[in-house]
Amino acid sequence: MAHADTPLHANTPCSPQDVDAFLNEAETLVARRGLKMTRIRRKVLRLLLESPEPAKAYDLLDNLDGEGSAKPPTIYRALDFLQETGLAHKIESLNAYVACGHASHNHSAVFLICNSCNAAEELHATSTNKALRAETEAAGFTMTRAVIEVRGTCRDCAA
Ligand SMILES: [Zn+2]
Ligand SMILES: [Zn+2]
Ligand SMILES: [Zn+2]
């Protein structure tokens, strides 16, 4: 398995490590909500899964070969869909996107982002999730999504 040696990033810690298996799981998850995984959405998710680090929308656009008519709005719509269904997160400080391997279960998107190599590792942070939800609800605010970005130095770069 190549996975054990790959640098830390936010992909698939819980979902199948195999990209096709992951995509099939994602498709089932989306279908269960009565939504549809179109070709472009699936392709964008595949690119995110295959990207060794958080991917920029324009890099995705460049790599959408075979989908020549894809324009920036198409990509952004696909990325919005993936975020709304919890299959991807946007890391604002990098202006980049990552696939999420935890879409099927409760977690808060807490990212550990390395200042040296830009690797982004996603934590489950279930207690953070609970606390954030409780405080958000207490404030009378309806949360749709939250991404917490923690900056620092990753294991590999600290070594
Ligand atoms: Zn996630
Ligand atoms: Zn998980
Ligand atoms: Zn690093």
Automatic annotation (TrEMBL):
Gene Ontology process terms (BP): negative regulation of DNA-templated transcription; regulation of secondary metabolite biosynthetic process
Q: Which UniProt keywords apply?
A: DNA-binding, Metal-binding, Repressor, Transcription, Transcription regulation, Zinc
Q: Which cofactor does it need?
A: Zn(2+)
The Swiss-Prot or TrEMBL record describes its family as follows: Belongs to the Fur family.
What the record notes about the co-factor is: Binds 1 zinc ion per subunit.
Name of the protein in its database record: Transcriptional repressor
* Gene Ontology CC annotations of this record: cytosol
Name the Pfam families for this protein: FUR (PF01475)
- Residues the entry annotates as binding Zn(2+): 114, 117, 154, 157
Taxonomy, top ranks, is: Bacteria, Pseudomonadati, Pseudomonadota, Alphaproteobacteria, Hyphomonadales
Q: What's a single GO MF annotation on this record?
A: transcription cis-regulatory region binding
